[in-house]
Amino acid sequence: MTIRKAVIPAAGIGSRLLPLTKAIPKEMLPVGDKPVIEHTVRELVASGITDITIVVSAGKSLIQDHFRPNPALVAQLRADGKQAYADAVEEVYELGRQGHITYLDQHGPYGNGTPVLNAARTLGDEAMLVLWPDDVFVAEVPRAQQLIDAYEKTDAPVLALMPMDPAESQRYGVPVVEQELDNGLMRISGLKEKPKPADAPSSFAAIGGYVVTPGIVAELRRQVDNWYTHRTGEVYLTDAINIFAATNPVYGQVIRGRWYDTGNPADYLVAQFASALNHPEYGPLLRGLCE
């Protein structure tokens, strides 16, 4: 069975980007001419996803406002002869309709596994994609589609991977690679979180994209149950994947394309510049200014 459902955890406060994110959700910060979460939604819709759950918290109403219809604004734009702007507003709503976006408030312990479990309770007993909303991928084949293709080959959980400079290992989760297959697909037996370069088990980094199966959801549920018993620690998706991988097949897929992280100021600026330079209208202008 192919994957039709996806989760975007969007409940974080964006602390690394404060004070920029004090009033604006980090998911609504622009990369190029679109907020970063719209890049993620477009990637999912282009990959055939028809059910998108965005897990939110207080202060995230701008996300809903962005994707909901605004007929009064469209009517005003058309009355003013601004047809292209009206079409653009309607196109964003149509994007959300194609993805059948629903919103869910996050409840439970701290950690990025909690929104995945929150969404899984409403999405049913199926595999689903999980994409973080502060990543932008530029690829001929969308990252989401590459993950779906890998899942259809393996019928197992899949992690998005990128080649990594070993000196940067302390920034990432690094997979333990058991077997390299074809086209960037590899069997993995776990992840080491932010190891020192000498301790990195491979030269790949796990970056923002997962195919999560019911077995991993069950492990997340056990972690949350334990948290409510002991009230200590946090619930992380990578911990559940590690435990699951000890006794079950898990795979990594090296993603073909460019990855831009927008979760911290330096990488956000890089994503902004890269997007502008790649734009057919703005790119030549900026290059001319730099000459």
From TrEMBL:
List, in alphabetical order, the GO biological process terms annotated in this UniProt record: UDP-alpha-D-glucose metabolic process
What are the TM regions of this chain, as residue ranges? none
Q: Which UniProt keywords apply?
A: Nucleotidyltransferase, Transferase
Please, which domain of life does this record's source organism belong to? Bacteria
Q: Which Gene3D superfamilies match?
A: Spore Coat Polysaccharide Biosynthesis Protein SpsA, Chain A
Enzyme class, broadest EC rank: transferase
Which SUPFAM superfamilies does this chain map to? Nucleotide-diphospho-sugar transferases
State which Enzyme Commission number(s) the record gives. Answer: 2.7.7.9
- What reactions does this protein catalyze? alpha-D-glucose 1-phosphate + UTP + H(+) = UDP-alpha-D-glucose + diphosphate
In what residue span(s) does the Nucleotidyl transferase domain sit?
A: 5-272
Q: Name one GO molecular function term.
A: UTP:glucose-1-phosphate uridylyltransferase activity
Pfam short name (any one): NTP_transferase
Which family would the database say this protein is a member of? Belongs to the UDPGP type 2 family.
Q: Which PANTHER family match?
A: UTP--GLUCOSE-1-PHOSPHATE URIDYLYLTRANSFERASE
This chain's protein is named UTP--glucose-1-phosphate uridylyltransferase
